[in-house]
Amino acid sequence: MDTNQIERIYSVYSRFYDLIYNKLFHESRQAAIHHLEIEPGAKILEVGVGTGLSLPLYPRHCSITGIDLCDSMLKRGWNKVRHYGLTHVQLLRMDASSLEFEDNTFDAVAAAYVISTVPDPRKVLLEMIRVCKENGKIVLLNHFSNGNKFISMVERMISPLCVHIGFRTDLALEPLLEGMPLVIQKKAHVNPFRFWHLVQCR
Questions:
Q1: Total structural domains in the chain?
Q2: Tens digits of per-residue pLDDT, 87-125?
Q3: DSSP-derived pairing of the beta strands 132-142 and 196-201
Q4: Confidence at residue 24, expressed as pLDDT on a 0 to 100 scale
Q5: Which residues are within 8 A (CB) of 55 and not within 5 positions of it... i.e. 6 or more apart?
Q6: pLDDT < 70 positions in the chain
Q7: How far is CA 129 from CA 41, 97, 104, in A?
Q8: Which residue, of 18, 24, 39, 87, is most buried by count of CB atoms within 10 Å of its CB?
Q9: Which domain holds residue 47?
């Protein structure tokens, strides 16, 4: 996948994204925000904010910056900002693999259902680390390849097909984090069927 392909796919998804993913992933989004451990006055970055489903869930005592590559998704995100009066939120069009922020800008960084949709997941994660303060939290919410050999084989087989609809199924957590200056503090299964993981790092 390249960024143009991703933008085309999610421009189509934006029309019905909330209908499918709002209730399905609501509790996991709440859990991800909880594990950011947000303090009053904190600056938070959400990578791949999409249509902004998570935005009303954040406390209002912090400032939220959400970035996404897809204009159609961001347009729906801005609608939520206006609808809910989220004056502590700003949304920007930006490539997650080349963030336009200074080092150590944010107190915490989140990426929900994003890391397996990008062309270079390690590059995106490195950018998240770069812009996060040294002791800040980084929270990933995503499907990661199953440790079971049979399921992993199936995931590898179907991944080339899934790429055409905007994500991959064969991304493993350990190779993603290998050599990264991160320590996993918590890893938990979330969502229906426990098919997705919440990973809290620092």
A1: 1
A2: 999 999 999 999 999 999 999 999 999 998 899 999 999
A3: antiparallel
A4: 86
A5: 49, 64, 66, 77, 80, 81, 84, 86, 89
A6: 1-2, 5-6, 9-10, 13, 146-170, 192-193
A7: 20, 11, 8
A8: 18
A9: 3-201
Asked if 170 and 116 count as a contact pair (C-beta separation under 8 A), the reply is: no
SS3 for 123? helix
What is the pLDDT, as a whole number, of residue 80?
98
Give residues with Cβ within 8 angstroms of 57, minimum separation 6.
29, 30, 33
Q: Is the dihedral of CA 112, 116, 122, 123 positive or negative?
A: negative
Strand runs labelled E in 102-194 = 106-112, 132-142, 184-190
The whole model's pTM is what? 0.88
CATH number of the domain residue 168 falls in: 3.40.50.150
